[in-house]
Design a protein that fits this description.
This protein is α+β, with helices and mostly antiparallel strands. Helices cover 32% and strands 25% of the residues. Strands 15, 18, 19, 20, 21 and 22 form a six-stranded antiparallel sheet that branches. The protein has a five-stranded mixed sheet with strand order 5-6-1-7-8, with helices on both faces.
């Protein structure tokens, strides 16, 4: 089934100066004291706070300052708008490889082949809406079986167009999504839309108004030869494309060969954890790029830019290495959140940059019939990365047994990241003694043995300990630190099992009291 999603960004001129995530980063309201975008000294777009103060489109600069002296005035920047639209298009590539940019700040997504992957049209629209909200843009979302139909429904759902076709909405926010999953439903929606939505019809609006033609349904009933002679072929072509009577060609968005994204903060951020919203904006672009290129990332670098000019300093780099290649934004954002919470900033941050350092082809999902108990290997690696980011690499260790009979030497632990980076086989070429695996060993070996008390010639640890095994004698380490011990499995009155040893002192008399130590606990 062919289905399209249309995205119209009606407040793009304002959102590039005052994105929604900026309010989270600055800790204040996005709309205070009020943002206004001017084009040729007249108001083009305004924030809700400015609209509440009485500012309206077309008002001059002087009128704005009279009504709201503290308003933030910005000159429209087509370059920033184009960059923002490119960023949104790049992020949308995570949902479909077929994304096209259209006129009037609109994107079209061919999602017919993505519905089953994302759980249906409702779930997919919810994810698209959440991504746009994270990117900081307000948008009107529509669905239709034709691309031009989705474009028209998205434009109709934007501020300034009421549902019945009248122009002049005052809400300043996108209306609810307009969805038409079948052609019959789309035709009913299109029939109620105003003629002014079609760009080729706008030069002739006075003539259409004079003949009483205000909606597309009425436009379709006009004689086509006369309409073509007066308004041109482009109007009929666009109308036919919206109703699925004419094919359309698109220039699809192509992901670049390498990824590097940058974001201007428009404010000075002094706390690292407040940068997460802006970093999430960049991670969404990275996710779309990775999905489009069928790649997974192993290492990313977040660059936090500081002041420029005479007091300029090098950006602060925050590097994150992944144990397993990934391409999901949720996991990357969680790692960034943990690292930013422990990051100290040498100076306020005015800009962010994100780079993908190490890449590899995206691995397909596992085809094994029986998954690993408790989750997949990817889930386990994701958990370890989160623990490393939260606790620090020196506090997340992995066992690396050494080929030695002495328990303290054989029981070596190294940071899990270091072991993964070097490769376990490269770190430990030796093998444990073949008979060591068959000997009983505790699940918990103490870092330092505990000297035990002696009561009635028996070792005591909370209760008298009863020896429950034959001794295991260890005599090793003559080349560095000699150990002569007899290890036993002992049982307490609570039936807990302990690993204890009796130290044999060379040269001591037979009457010497033996010294007992607790070295491990059995689970």
């Amino acid at each position: 089934m062919r289905l399209w999603i249309g995205l119209h960004l009606p407040q793009l001129a304002l959102d590039v100066f005052s994105p929604s995530w900026l309010s989270d980063a600055s800790g204040g309201e996005r709309t205070a004291p009020g943002s206004v975008v001017l084009e040729q000294e007249r108001v083009l777009a305004m924030s809700p706070a400015a609209r509440a103060a009485g500012i309206r489109p077309g008002m001059r600069r002087g009128g704005v300052l009279m009504l709201m002296p503290g308003a933030r005035l910005h000159e429209r920047s087509p370059a920033r708008e184009a960059e923002a639209l490119d960023a949104v298009a790049l992020a949308m590539l995570q949902f479909t490889p077929q994304v096209a940019q259209q006129e009037e700040a609109t994107l079209l997504l061919d999602i017919g082949a993505s519905l089953r992957l994302f759980g249906g049209i409702r779930a997919l629209c919810a994810r698209v809406r959440a991504s746009l909200r994270t990117l900081g843009f307000s948008a009107a979302i529509s669905c239709a079986p034709t691309a031009r139909g989705a474009w028209l429904l998205a434009r109709a759902g934007s501020p300034g167009w009421s549902h019945d076709g009248a122009q002049g909405g005052r809400s300043g926010r996108p209306r609810r999504s307009l969805r038409a999953l079948r052609m019959a439903s789309l035709e009913r929606h299109l029939a109620r839309l105003p003629v002014a939505l079609l760009p080729p019809a706008r030069p002739y609006l006075a003539w259409f108004e004079g003949i009483g033609c205000e909606r597309l349904g009425e436009l379709r009933r006009l004689p086509r030869p006369g309409l073509q002679r007066r308004c041109g072929r482009a109007l009929l072509d666009m109308l036919d494309a919206a109703h699925g009577l004419q094919p359309e060609l698109f220039d699809w968005v192509v992901a670049p060969d390498s990824f590097r994204a940058r974001l201007e903060l428009f404010d000075r951020i002094e706390q690292a954890e407040l940068l997460l919203a802006g970093a999430h904006h960049l991670v969404l672009q990275l996710t779309g790029w990775l999905c489009a290129r069928q790649l997974a990332v192993e290492r990313i670098t977040l660059l936090m830019e500081h002041e420029r000019g005479r007091v300029a300093m090098a950006p602060t780099a925050l590097e994150i290495a992944l144990a397993e290649p990934g391409w999901r934004d949720e996991h990357l954002v969680r790692l960034l959140k943990e690292r930013l919470a422990r990051q100290a900033l040498p100076a306020p941050v005015i800009g962010l940059g994100l780079e993908a350092r190490q890449l590899r082809p995206m691995a397909p999902p596992t085809a094994s019939l029986f998954p690993e108990p408790g989750g997949s290997e990817e889930d386990r690696m994701r958990m370890l990365e989160l623990l490393v980011a939260r606790l620090g690499p020196e506090n997340v260790l992995q066992a690396l047994p050494q080929a030695d009979y002495r328990p303290e030497v054989a029981n070596e632990w190294v940071p899990v990241q270091e072991l993964r980076a070097a490769g376990q086989g490269a770190r430990s070429q030796a093998r444990l003694p073949p008979d060591l695996a068959s000997l009983p060993r505790p699940s918990w070996l103490l870092a330092k043995p505990i000297a035990l008390l002696m009561r009635n010639h028996r070792p005591f640890y909370g209760s008298p300990l009863r020896v429950a095994s034959t001794p295991e004698r260890i005599e090793a380490g003559w080349w560095s630190e000699t150990q002569t011990r007899d290890y036993f499995i002992a049982e307490g009155q609570d039936h807990a099992l302990y690993w204890i040893y009796r130290e044999r002192i060379v040269g001591a008399g037979e009457d010497a009291e033996p010294r007992w130590y607790l070295h491990g606990l059995f689970g």
